[in-house]
Design brief:
Number of strands: 15
Structural class: mainly beta
Shape: globular
Strand content: over 45%
Helix content: under 10%
Largest sheet: 13 strands, mixed
Order of helices and strands: EEEHEEEEEEHEEEEEE
């Protein structure tokens, strides 16, 4: 089972477990109604993602059962460039590759010498994680959004040693039959030498079976545009193709 896997053309992931997000203070923004609250949170998340025209990062990922039992963990590299370009390479425990060239979503497993191709247009409407790469505002009509503002710091920490300020957005499909039940996107504001910068630090999701996937990013880079060659996939010689387009 690859670290980021497909089922009927969907990319799976999940929300963090409660005991892995311990913070000293969690404040939920309030509004006159839940609908207004979701709309405001959604707009704020869309604005944040809209500022990320491209980025690259290393990642570590854990896959867990709903009860928190660790099933698998791995590491790899990720690059995104809007609109609709993705490069996801899992390095450990097994090498796999996911590439979106803007039209086709490719999944390549060199161990079994097989590649699968999915229509990006069909996948993106059913896969919340692909909201990271799309600027299509109509997609957001299919989801509700809740925002949490977390101040993570040690109780006895001095102000200058406080941990980074974080914001978490919980994205839930309106379709109750969605195979992805919840997507969580987290941003961290880092104060470096008096200059504050915001980074996408984590995203996670939970599928209909309860399986949870947590992805933590490191070496986040939104300054240097990823090389265009990353988002091109050519079927290697001798590799079987499962074409689901």
């Amino acid at each position: 089972m690859p670290i980021l896997h497909f089922s009927q053309g969907l990319v799976y992931a999940a929300q963090p477990l409660a005991d892995e997000a311990k913070v000293s203070d969690v404040k939920l923004e309030k509004s006159a109604s839940s609908a207004e609250y979701s709309s405001a949170a959604k707009q704020r998340l869309m604005t944040k993602l809209g500022k990320l025209a491209f980025f690259s990062a290393n990642f570590s990922q854990k896959i867990l059962t709903e009860q928190g039992e660790l099933l698998q963990q791995g590491t790899g590299k990720l690059a995104i460039s809007k609109p609709n370009l993705v490069y996801w390479q899992t390095v450990t425990p097994d090498e796999t590759l996911i590439v979106s060239d803007g039209n086709t979503l490719w999944f390549y497993d060199p161990f079994i010498e097989q590649a699968s191709a999915y229509s990006l247009a069909k996948s993106i409407h059913n896969t919340p994680i692909l909201l990271l790469i799309s600027d299509d505002a109509t997609l957001w009509q299919q989801y509700t959004v809740v925002q949490e503002s977390n101040i993570a710091q040690q109780p006895d920490a001095e102000p200058q040693t406080n941990k980074p300020l974080a914001e978490r957005f919980i994205v839930t499909p309106k379709n109750k039959n969605s195979q992805i039940k919840q997507l969580t996107i987290s941003f961290t504001t880092v104060d470096s030498q008096g200059e504050k910068t915001e980074q996408l630090s984590e995203f996670s999701f939970q599928d209909a079976t309860g399986q949870i996937s947590q992805i933590s990013l490191s070496q986040f880079n939104s300054t240097d545009k990823p090389d265009a060659s990353l988002f091109s996939f050519s079927l290697p010689q001798g590799v079987r193709l499962e074409d689901q387009r």
